[in-house]
Amino acid sequence: MCGRFDKHTSNEWIARQCFGRALSGPESSPRYNVAPGTPIDALTRLDAETVYISPMHWGFRPAWAGKDAPEPINARAETVAGSRYFAHAFAHKRCLVPADGWFEWQASDAGKVPYYITSAPDTEGVLFMAGIWEYGAGDDPVCAIITEPAAPSLASIHSRQPVVLDPACLEQWLDPELVDREAVRRMVQRRDPESLRFWAVSSAVNRPANDSPDLLEPITPGT
């Protein structure tokens, strides 16, 4: 799954360095412990020329679904295109959620150990997680991050992971004219999991109120 991540790279840097464009949308402050139910930065392309970076509520409940509908933070890659709840968004409202890394919890005899997963040195630093969005109540955008079975190199930590896209297919993922689900699946390329690194971090990340760079520092499990 993907239930917590960090994003400290600025939107301005992402827009210019990853897309070659000036920022369209608000800047945001660094966040080292982004939790569900809060606004997260998401990239959309609503026309042929402009990429927008704007906040969306992390929890997918479209306005049409009603106030008692579920509010999932993740959508499974295996079923997202055919699900009544997600299919329209997958076809017409795909987004990217930029992150510097994400957290997963590994089960152990001593309890769950948090790990931080991020880019290896000398690789593309920002990760782009595949997402979907819709308008929620009051026309405020809501989103979910798409997940899939974990790559073998990450499966020892958790059985699932976010779909992290290769930089080569970011524009296609955002293309509003690409609506056929098989065409989308053929187009999507995952980032090479060998370009990722991970390490255990402090259990302080368990509390969403903790939000500082030291949450990313490696520790020895059990300390």
From TrEMBL:
GO MF term set: lyase activity; peptidase activity; single-stranded DNA binding
Enzyme class per UniProt: hydrolase
One Pfam entry name: SRAP
The EC number(s) this enzyme carries: 3.4.-.-
GO biological process: protein-DNA covalent cross-linking repair; proteolysis
SUPFAM superfamilies listed in its UniProt record: BB1717-like
Keywords (A to Z) from UniProt: Covalent protein-DNA linkage, DNA damage, DNA-binding, Hydrolase, Lyase, Protease
InterPro entries the record matches: SRAP, SRAP-like
Record-stated family: Belongs to the SOS response-associated peptidase family.
Protein name: Abasic site processing protein
Source species: Halospina denitrificans
